Amino acid sequence: KLRWNYAADGVQQGDFKQVKVMGIEMVYIPQGDYFLGDGLANGTFRQVGNLNPAPVTQSSIIVKCNGTSYDDPQLEGAGILVDGDDGIDKDGTTAVDNPDYPMGFKAFYIMKYEISQGQWANFLNLLTPGQAQVRYYQTSSNRYTLSGNAPSIVAAAPDRACNFLSWMDGCAYADWSGLRPLTELEHEKVCRGIAAPVSGEYAWGNTSICSTAYTLANNGQPNELITNPCTNTGNASYFTTSYYYITGPLRCGICAASAVNQTRQETGASFYGVMELSGNLSERTVTLGNIAGRSYTAIHGNGMLSAEGHADVENWPGMQGVVISGAEGSGFRGGDWSYAADYLQVSSRYNAAYAYTDRNYNSGFRCGRSAP
């Protein structure tokens, strides 16, 4: 049902208005304990004094990492106190001072797929011309297919995951749709679920991954398929399978549709059935690696952007209101079609605190929402 207090928006009886309803498929992630880190992946989270994974529960634990070039000294040194239902110690004082940081312990929702090119075109077409111009990137490279001018932008491959999204682009979509960015902790929870970590595992729960270059049928269509998916191993779009012959992202959910045996492994699905968390596009998440990321609070978007087309939600990283700029506190997780397999590992943190501000051929976005 839809209920609208239209008078509050200045609409009167007899006015003509167009209302569009667009659904975003979400997956519910239940509250519960889980692990951070696997003891192997680059920059992986771990406990203090050893390489063991860190359990996230209702009790407090100090989490460290092996260190990446983008993390601050606090995370690599003394570590960060995390508590599943109470929050985190963002500044290293050993007491929780951000109770609203999304830990992944409490229940939340996550988009089942990365933002598609069709979803992005619909979003742009419902903005004002000035807002759309700020958020619209035009290129014909790396399987990006948006063309035309708002409000008539079209995506030639609407089911394909949308690349060339900056951090501020993704935040704008989250704000507009009433969602929020996800944290890198939530990313690991969705991949691993309640299962014990496996060293070097991918989102489908083991270390097996396809090593054959993919070929496609029905390229760009809603039924785009991989004609030679690997069997009894994990399927994902990454350097070996996609870089030389495909050169861009695949359609959302393609591995599930292409799998021979429809197992979690062959479809590339996470513990909860969320797709493409390993590979296809590098997904922008809020980092635990610096205080800008640790200051994030789980406020949802309110459906409205600034007049300039920016998200304007308090305590989201990068809310400086500058076009394609402002990303401190964000990073990347999951790897993509142009990266080697080790970037796809669940606990890999190569770029987890890399505050890249521009749009890139291999970066996309996926949003979430805290459960009530």
Describe the structure using short key phrases.
15% strand, 9 helices, 372 residues
Provide a descriptive summary of the structure in words.
- By secondary structure, the chain is an alpha+beta fold.
- It is built from 9 helices and 17 strands.
- The protein has helices at 73-76, 117-125, 129-135, 167-176, 184-192, 239-243, 254-258, 264-267, 291-294; strands at residues 26-29, 34-36, 45-47, 54-56, 60-65, 80-83, 87-88, 108-111, 146-147, 154-155, 180-181, 216-217, 225-226, 282-286, 330-333, 363-364, 367-370.
- The strands form 6 sheets. Strands 1-8-17-11 form a 4-stranded antiparallel sheet, covered by helices on one side.
- A hairpin with a 6-residue loop joins strand 9 (146-147) and strand 10.
- The radius of gyration is 20 Å and the shape is globular.
- The two termini are 19 Å apart.
